[in-house]
Every structure is written in C-alpha cells, then in structure tokens.
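Practice problem: predict the structure.
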Amino acid sequence: MHQPPLPSLAATDPEIAHLVEGEAQRQFDKLRLIASENYVSQAVLEASSTVLTNKYSEGYVGRRYYEGQQFIDPVETLAVDRAKELFGVEHANVQPYSGSPANLAVYLAFAKPGDTVMGMGLPFGGHLTHGWSVSATGKWFSSVRYGVRADTGRVDMDEVRDLAREHRPKLIFCGGTAIPRTIDYPAFAEIAREVGAVLVADIAHIAGLIAGGAHPSPVGHADVISTTTHKTLRGPRGAMLMSTAEHAKALDKAVFPGLQGGPHNHTTAAIAVALREASAPAFGEYAHTVVANARALAEALVERGFDLVSGGTDNHLILVDLTSKGVAGKPTAKALDEAGIELNYNTVPFDPRKPFDPSGVRLGTAAITTRGLRPEQMPRVAEWIDTVVTATAKGEQGEVLPTVSAEISELLSGYPMPGWA
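Answer:
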C-alpha cells in the first residue's frame, strides 16, 4: 500500500485514492527507465504534503505581501542556503514552479521579444524552451539552433561558434533533454564571452550528478544555471535558478512579479529536504552508481547490436536508434511498458520519422539506481529489452511480454521503494 497510508483520502474520495494506490503499485512493479523520473525519499514525500500548502507568500524572504511568514521565511532561507552551498553558487532562487517557467524567467530577465537566442535544436536533444518553434520561446524570439555531428552524435562546437559569431545572440543555452554526453561548459563559456551573450546552463537532467560529483559543474563558466529539482536530484517537482551575484536581481524580478505569484511553500520545503539529502556522502555514491549503471547498460545494449547515439553515455541517459532493429520507437516503447519496462519513444539526430512516431527510445538509470540496482544487473536489463524489441519487430509478442514482466516483478520485489510498503 501507499506509504504513508491515505485513510482520509480513501474516505473522502475513494476513486482518487484507488488511482493513487494503483500508481504506487505500478511504480513498485515496473523497471522505470524514463530518464526524467526518479523516486523521492519518504522525507521529501512527507514535506510535499504538509500544511505549508495552505500559506500564501508572494514576494521574497523579509519582503512579503502577506503577513504570517514567521515559519515560511526560514523554510525558504534554508532551501536557498542549501542550494548555494551544494552547488557553490552566489545566488539561488527556489520559487520557480517547474523547469519551463524557470527558463522563461531567464528570457524575461535578459532578452526582449524579437531578440536572437540560441540553443540546441529539439531533434538533436535540446529542450522546447531553448527556442524551439512550437514553444513560446521560439515564437517570441528569433531562434538559432545548433545540433550534433552526424558522424559522432556529439555537439559540434565549431558550428556553435560559427552560428554565434554570425547571429550574435543575447542568450546561449547549453544542455537539453536527450544529451548522453558531457557538456563542454568551458568551450560554451568562451564562445558566449566572445559574442557578448549570457550563457545559460540547463542542468535539469544532470543536477543530481553534478551535486554528487559525477558530472562537471557549469559553475564558474555559465552566467545562469537553470534546473528542475526532480530527475537525478531526487527532489519534488519544482525548479531553481542559480547565478552569479551580478544577475541575482534581474532573475528574482523575472520570477516574481514577472511570471508568477506566490511560491508553493510545501514544494520549497521538499526542495530544502532534497538538497540536504544531496549534501550527504551517500548521495555521491548514488550519483556515481547512476553513471556506472548507465555505462554498463549501454555496453550491454551495444553487445546485443543496438545503435546508440554517440556510441554510449557519460551520464544517466542513453538514446537508442532502433532503425537497424527493424522497428520504430513508439511501438517498442508500448511493448516494453506492457513487459514491465517503462521508457519513452524519442527522436534521434537526423531522424527521418515524425516526432510522434520516431526512430528511437530514450532511457535513463536514475530511478533503478535509487531502487538499489547495480552495474552487474544491467546485462539482464539489456537482455529483457532485446527480447521485447526482437519480438516486437517480428510481431510475436505473444507470451514474451507477460514472461518478461513476471521476471521483472520477481527481481524488483527484493528492492524497496520509498512511498510503497
């Protein structure tokens, strides 16, 4: 059952309670490989569901528009101080509701509609809010996109430099949503300085790896750092903006009153808890194991004939091109879900297929690492994936999917999950 139990919810709204219990059971039974998902701790769960959700707190610590902030101000102060200490930054804002509003605040702070901005194109692993056409950031700003080399699957820094020199963007985003390799922050910083751009490092996917010392940090290179607080960081669904002291006022003003009203105080408290957890030595071990698991899984997939974008991974994320397997990403993702393996279909660089029916799948190892799985178990995970992909390509799922699902449930039954008992 869900932990902690939900007796009041069950009595008041049994339909919702039933769905919550079902989701908890699903999260326990599934091999969760969606790169942007994780499990939060019991402490983070509890902080997220406190009476702090009852309080309105527009403004910042010591400068609120509502009275009764005697306990809220210390909560936000703890979150800010812990973020600054953990990441080694001069300024942190923990109020953004999620990653996309956090990125919008960056635009509001440093650019005007029509200005030129630059980011990785969505089909190459960038994020919607880095200037892609269907996003407000692509509609309100003149967007220039860089990609990856066809032969290596890695960011072409020569292209980035040439585009920056030609277009002189106000903002340059580095980072994204499907980048399996280490980001060269010093090289991006050099280019940004040359053209007078503000460099924004979007570390939403790798924040936990950076905090745990398993990935290079953009601090000292990027003017602004944007991140969600879940994914590898194992916090609640929220976001943060960090920067040098020089940009603190502009960012704070952009978040409030520029884009949003009162912060979600229960989320702020949960962020503070997650940041404290991330400062413990055990978190560093977790972060390095996330990377070790990803590399072990990537190697096992390559041995089974899978084509990986860039040939492997440096972080938690693996991007697989299924073209050589004779099956597309969408039917593969659906079959794997039925077999107990949760991931998402995803475009790959230079993908000839449409985004809603792409050639690839994206997977990550953060959640299974939190459950306690180790590199020695990754070959078995690769075997399960291969079995399902092969059966899907042949249209012979039949008994294969239930068999794999049962084997996965048996394995995971020995690994506890926060939020389920």
